[in-house]
Amino acid sequence: VQLVESGGGLVQAGGSLRLSCAAPGLSFVDYVVGWFRQAPGKEREGVSCISSNRPDGTRYADSVKGRFTISMDNAKTTVYLQMNSLKPEDTAVYYCAVVGYYSGYVDMPLRENEYDFWGQGTQVTVSS
After folding, report:
1. What is the average pLDDT across 35-47?
2. How far is 86 from 64, CA to CA, in rounded Å?
3. H helices then E strands: how many in the chain?
4. CA atoms of 100 and 98, how far apart (whole Å)
5. Which helix (H) or strand (E) holds 11?
6. pLDDT of 17 over the 90 cut
7. At 113, is the secondary structure helix, strand, or coil?
8. Cα–Cα distance measured from residue 126 to residue 11, given in angstroms and rounded to the nearest whole number
9. Region label for 88, one of left (φ > 0), alpha (ψ between -120 and 50) or beta (otherwise)
10. 95-120 tens-digit pLDDT
């Protein structure tokens, strides 16, 4: 599975960016798509995830709740991460990742080791 992220860039604090994640030739039906980020010197952390397989199919890290919104297009081929009210501490390389959906999830997965395939990442830099 090849994942392609786009939409990163440089933005001032308080600004917005929208990241996209697509997998050429793949539908995200029956997958969970997650967004992660890794800042310099820090571990990779889960930001948000989405699955179309359940009504409550989104989850957010506490640090981004109310500011970031994850969504999936109707064709289920692209996942977006709308990031508003960006802060300097949001600066990181953002990665999307996928794992096959598992009906036994209690909570939607947001740990790195729960995902199987990863994109190359896109840089997001928020200036103060």
Report:
1. 97
2. 9
3. 0, 11
4. 7
5. strand 9-12
6. yes
7. helix
8. 5
9. alpha
10. 999 999 988 888 899 999 999 999 99
| Three-state secondary-structure class, residue 35 | strand
* 38 dihedral zone (left: phi>0; alpha: psi -120 to 50; beta): beta
Partners of 13 in the β-ladder: none
Residue 37: count of CB within 10 angstroms of its CB: 24
Q: Contact 33/50 with Cβ under 8 angstroms?
A: yes
Q: What is the pLDDT of residue 104?
A: 85
Question: pLDDT per residue over 60-86, tens digit each?
Answer: 999 999 999 999 999 999 999 999 999
User: Residue 44 corresponds to which tokens in the numbers above?
Assistant: 């990779």
Parallel/antiparallel/unpaired status of strands 92-100 and 31-38: antiparallel
Closest to 19 measured CA to CA, from 32, 36, 31: 36
The residue type found at 127 is: S
Backbone phi and psi for residue 100, each to the nearest 5 degrees, phi listed first: -65, 140
Q: Which helix (H) or strand (E) holds 12?
A: strand 9-12
- Type of residue found at 100: G
- For the record, the structure tokens of 32 come out as 């969970």
